[in-house]
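Blackboard transcription, Thursday session:
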Amino acid sequence: MLLKLIGGIFIITACGLFGIAASNKYRGRPRELRNLRSSLQMLETEIIYGATPLPNAFNNIADKSCKVWYDFFKLASINLNSGIYYSVKEAWDSAIEEKLKNTNLNKPDIELLGQFGNILGNSDCEDQLKHFKLFYKQLEQQEDAAVEDKKKNEKLYRSLGFLLGLAVFIILV
Amino acid sequence: MDINLVFRIAGLGIIIAILNMVLIKSGREEVAMMTTLVGVVIICIMVVSLISKLFDSVKTMLMF
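(Written on the board underneath:)
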């Protein structure tokens, strides 16, 4: 009897933790997108007003960004400085590949960011500014969708995990 | 015939009712319906042996 109870507690905690892990994914995404937007605003300032070269600009904004984007922009800067990539796009993509796969961002977010890397450093200030404006708009849409998803799914997954654990426990006992 | 089974069915029923409510509230009516259906099937599996026993006893009582 005692053994059954201990096993049951294990099952319920395991399922509950799975649920919490799933709900954390939805909680982190809006925050990361918001942080990305503020980082990019800093990048915009660096490009438009400071006219800083991209490797230095990445390095500067990395220092002011939070964890995920710190890693990302640092690596992008290192990639650009290392000289093994032919274009900004390649360095940018390799940084995405390396640092953003294990974050809460989903595929469309990452694709959007990848497309943005295409444009970066390819034209004059005014054109860059236009692309930044467009990207903010797209990012805002993603952010709204992320907030919507969070509202819909965060609580659901949390309770779903525990309830399914409880159901499995009752079926097995 | 043990009372345990009755409690198990009751507990499962409560949990499936809560699951149903949570899923409907987050706008997944079709998933909610599927969970209810799965719950019914699981409970059917749990009681199917008892039902067959009941049939057997009815049969012997009526001497078929």
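Lecturer's comment: Residues 16 and 36 of chain B are 6 Å apart (CA to CA).
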